[in-house]
Amino acid sequence: MESESTVGISASAPPAPPPPATDDLLQSSNAASSPADAAARLIHAVEQRQQHLLDKTVPHVLYRWIACLVVVLIYFVRVYLVEGFYIITYAIGIYLLNLIIAFLSPQEDPEASLGGGTLPTRRSDEYRPFVRRLPEFKFWLSIIRAFVIGFMMTFFEVFDVPVFWPILLFYWVMLFILTMRKQIQHMIKYRYVPFSFGKRQKYGKKPAPAESSE
Q: DSSP string spanning 9-55?
């Protein structure tokens, strides 16, 4: 009798409520965010691979600049063949002018520093290599990127603004002359050269022991 009563009670008990819908919502949100996460992981992997390849090219200075000249030549051949996109070339020229100024300028401007800068001005001063505001590798990489982006823009007619290119060339040459003149005057005033020459002396090295006269 007791077993029959328990069976009757269990049969008459209401069914268990369904699980909450929060799990389904979480699963759907995870499924919706999975393509974005996959794209982010792919972009991160591509950036890591690109940075790894760039790091391998750092010691090969000559080959890097030869590749840069090839890229520049390809761009100018493209502009010559299509006979247009001179405004893009002018913009690249202005950008290169800014890069050159940053490449030739010291990291710490002597005019802005209180003590007249950290550049050696006398022969007796301790040797310190010239530290650029824009390092050589970043200078090279910025030039490559500028011409690659400019080359891609030549395939879109919207950027082909009709201009008289000799005027742009004359204006860029004048800007180059005036900017270089100002930069040279700055170098003469603060007595620095944007390149490291001469024999590097190692400071802090112990002198060799003197030989005995016996």
A: HHHHSPPPPPPPTHHHHHHHHHHHHHHHHHHHHHHHHHHHHHHHHHH
Identity of the amino acid at 130 = F
String of DSSP letters for 63-131: HHHHHHHHHHHHHHHHHHHHT--HHHHHHHHHHHHHHHHHHHSBSS-TTTSTTS-SS--STTSPP-PPP
Closest residue by Cα to residue 150 from 57, 81, 74: 74
Can you give the C-alpha Rg of the chain in angstroms?
Answer: 33
What the block records as the tokens of 183 is: 């930069």
**Chain segment 57-73, per-residue pLDDT in tens:** 888 899 999 999 999 99
Higher-pLDDT residue of 148, 214: 148
